[in-house]
């Protein structure tokens, strides 16, 4: 934690003249001193040519990866077309190629977020506002059964905002009926705080957090409203940093900043920080004013919300639903990569999973409710926004492809099913094309992460998350398809954490039963790992006995085994997390914050993910070993060196 002296120095550096409200400089936005007598736009600084050059290199690698992937698929399909009889006898190859085509499509869509020119070398013009121009703002703090001290800290931080007290209020929107919180707000005796509790009529949809926010709109007459979560603590400069970017441009509906967490476990094993989304995707989408809302740390223009009927209740993720509704009206957003809010990530694994599944449910609901409106002929969304809207939901359905691919490889290994047809020359060319594609994919994947906080660790956490979350997303997709109405339920993460934490104090059963209970959320992961280990051991021993009688077949056995074993390392992540949970506990929350006169304070950027040595294990498995394997395969295939030990020269 930063010392009080450091904190005071940081605040002094961020102070502005009393006659203006300006946007401090940062890595995303540049500013210079401005006149306090007028509203002005500062000159655009010199472009960051180094970052422009690096972005060009990334684009080249990403395009090379896409081109190599396409080349591999085209040649593979060409070989199939030459040998239709063999293909008919191996229908599993059709399934494999279908999965590969879907992965290719997802790669093309994902590449759009990487090749879009980020605003990083065209910084936003720094804005300032006259003191007389400062608009009114209401900060919405929706609560629902969190421990009372959590929203209390959020209220204190909001009241400490560096903004005229008569120009903003904190509206505490209590959906949990917390009488203690109500007394706390009343005892503050501040005109800046208003406690609100809506009445919920049984049988009438109350729309969870969205309904709570709309209840706040009914009691607000401010020009701008801030959406935040109950656990989020805002930096004193939050309003003066964000407001100029929405006040000066009437087409901007909201300004969004990233989330940071002060209880983030060392090493960020579950990828809570979402570094790629905040440090890459959001910055690139901001180029076209298409960065979505993430549910907290956003300031909205009240007039635009009124035009669409308030926050949108058609999905339990009202943040992105409302954002796309505004985009479809021709409005835009601004994303500032400023760490001006810190909050709590779920304390328990169960809370984390339920949160992610809720996001998946919300995305599916959003698509189901509005796909005609967003993608139809009357849509006002740009092509970038249409792709973004589609992929916001489509990403979760890749879990189905993951399942099919993994099961297919296991079955092919266990039943000795061949993955190659055609002549030895064609088999060799397929291996060459596959190796080139995978090498370029890995190089492009590494390049896009460079420059991010803890880039090696974050990259590996993100890749692991892609695999180990597959069973949980599949569960949500199944529920959404076969029991759609049941997905419109909402349990606050804090309530899930509380129940999970209380369960730990119950009397533990016998050892075996204990592990079954403790690992109940990862039973699929354990079964998968044991199954893969058994099948791989069986096939590798079989290949060893054959001693190179069919090199093309042996290569695919080794490649599939290597791939399945690498996914096993990713599936270990939640198992290890449950058996060795982070040291931070809910009771330590206040100790993770720095207080000054009972008000929580933090230094911007002080809560980035911290390094853990385990990231190097995944770096070795997922990057170093993978690249070495496929480079070796490429060299052997090109030089035909395999013939030295292959008895039949099958390749």
Layout of secondary structure:
Elements: H1 4-14, E1 20-22, H2 49-82, H3 84-89, H4 92-115, E2 128-130, E3 137-143, H5 149-159, E4 168-174, H6 179-188, E5 193-196, H7 208-218, E6 224-227, E7 233-234, H8 238-247, E8 252-256, E9 260-261, H9 275-286, E10 298-301, H10 302-307, H11 318-327, E11 332-335, E12 341-343, H12 349-375, H13 383-414, H14 424-449, H15 455-468, H16 470-482, H17 493-503, H18 511-518, H19 523-546, H20 551-579, E13 594-596, E14 599-601, H21 614-639
Parallel strand pairs: 3-4, 3-6, 4-5, 8-11, 9-12
Antiparallel strand pairs: 1-2, 6-10, 7-12, 8-10, 13-14
Helix pairs in contact: 2-4, 2-14, 4-13, 11-12, 12-13, 12-16, 12-17, 13-16, 13-20, 14-21, 15-20, 15-21, 19-20
